[in-house]
User: What shape does this take?
Amino acid sequence: MKRLLPTLRADQTSESLVSVINTIQIAAKEISFRLHQGALAGVLGSSLDENIQGETQKKLDIVSNQLLKTLLLESPNVHAVASEEEDSIVESPNSGHYLVAFDPLDGSSNIDINGGVGTIFSILRKPEGEQTSENMFLQPGKAQIAAGYVLYGPSTMLVMTTGKAVRIYTLDQTVGEFLLTHEKAEIPRDTKEFAINMSNRRHWADPIQAYISDLLDGEEGPRGKNFNMRWNAAMVSDVHRVMSRGGLFTYPWDARKPEKPFKLRLLYEVAPMSMLVEKAGGKATDGYNRLMDIVPEHIHQRVPVIMGSANEVDMCMEYHKQHPKPY
Ligand code: F6P
Assistant: This one.
């Protein structure tokens, strides 16, 4: 079976980019090891810290963030990193050509229940001649050089693209290597499965209310077919299911907290996942616009998300055309 780095080189990936991806996979293997040790590693449970977005950090969030940050900042090819767990960007003492944005441990509320969690990463080129500041990261998803996630589930999988096919690697725990197990992920265009946190139903706006209501009406409703629902509460696990067998994943606008109407972060979660979904033949939108076209206004920006099987995403967008925009 092919190992990660040779497959990247076979795709003509530059050595500098191979080296950045290598750094990420080293950190991911360490995170995977610690997660699989679970309570034995003595790192589970909440710490007293809160990250800047007001969520309680788990100790493993901190450990994962620290690992990725430290290793990436040591890389000669990285200029700066932006992490979901950091207030601001962190500049490397080295002046590499790449910027890396990451969510070190997405879906971390699943840690305490031994559920799936993941690391998401996005690699951008440092804009030429630009002063080092947060602005360097304010590039649309379509500018990404590479994107991927690592799913720490029953097995640890790395799913990534450098702009070509989406490749899936599985961590062989016996030799400590990511081995290529799927040459080209392809998301089926049609689906009968959706993923949404249904408990927020009363807070959604008209387009999603109408769309989900028609899915729930199944064979008797306007869609004329039954839909299944799944929700892991970890974007990596939910998007991985979509990547594996199709589906529609959404975290829409909702009215719970007017000051925070969207949940998912553009830079660390949405842009990289959108690149992967599109490269696997799916679509990713905020209901109106392609997510990969959105230029971030700040590094911690959140957006509404609808992604997955192309025909189903198109269908959901039709409901957005027919109902007033909530924001
Ligand atoms: O952004 C963090 C995250 O955990 C995502 O991974 C996941 O899709 C979502 O939040 C789950 O949100 P909720 O707890 O509202 O279901």
